[in-house]
């Protein structure tokens, strides 16, 4: 796979930060070929798992003769089979993702999410894993099933290039729709600002976890959303509801906004922690390759 395939979204500098990194699954996953990740099936692979008593019909070559010499009993050595990972990237393309503040180097949250998606797809295919893509707003707009062919990156990049943020969304409802479509357990990566009803979102995430999926949420923030820097009278316009705009004095709103923001973040963090989901803040004023490399390095140490 050449850099030219992703040059519109990833610079050589970005790729240089990621070339030695891998996205490793923390829990068992189901795949179709040998790879980096633990499988729920036992086989004859690299990592020893356990001994079990020999029973008629077992292959003689699997007998641990050293244990037989010590115990005079026949035991079979079982190994953890390694497999490839099926990863699906869920990209929020709703209107709120179109926001771009003065500190984000001209990138909207959606632009940032698109580049992050391309980066993750590139990494997955580099390590011979399968990767797919879902784009959504108030419904699923595009679904590309996971594939592991290098040429699959072209389809993902093309879809990302053609996707524009629009309409409202309620993540909980969209994710409820997706649960039955994602059958085989794997890694789901959500790229979104996660704005919406937290309770409904957490319930939908719990369904994914019940289906044995591992999950990472990259929560995209514009710095303006985190510290509300507005000081003078400002016209705020909804990016999801056309014609909904108000001219307000930010000084009167700032405390209430920051209080609501803290409550929202605390509830989402608690829900993700309860269901063992990684919630990773990604502010758009931090280079995405740098932020991703930092997270993956930490994840690898903990895997």
Model description:
- This protein is α/β, with parallel strands linked by helices and 303 residues long.
- The chain has two domains: 3-27 and 84-302, von Willebrand factor, type A domain (Rossmann fold, 3-Layer(aba) Sandwich); 37-83, no CATH class.
- Helices cover 36% and strands 24% of the residues.
- The chain contains nine helices and eleven strands.
- The protein has a six-stranded mixed β-sheet, sandwiched between helices. A three-stranded antiparallel β-sheet has the order 1-3-2.
- Helix 5 (171-178) runs parallel beside helix 6.
- The model is unreliable at 1-5 and 28-46 (pLDDT under 50).
Helix content: 25-40%
Order of helices and strands: HEEHEEHEEHHEHEHEEHEH
Structural class by secondary-structure content: alpha/beta
User: Which fold does the CATH topology of the largest domain refer to?
Assistant: Rossmann fold
How many DSSP H or I helices?
9
Biggest sheet: strands side by side, in what order? 6-5-4-7-8-11
CATH class group of the largest domain: Alpha Beta
The CATH superfamily label of the largest domain reads: von Willebrand factor, type A domain
Count of folded domains: 2
Largest sheet: 6 strands, mixed
CATH architecture assignment of the largest domain:
3-Layer(aba) Sandwich
Quick check: average pLDDT?
84
Poorly predicted regions are 1-5, 28-46
Q: What's the assembly state of these chains? A: single chain
For the termini, the CA-CA separation is 27 Å
Bin the strand percentage: 15-25%
Shape: elongated
The strand count comes to 11
**Cα Rg:** 23 Å
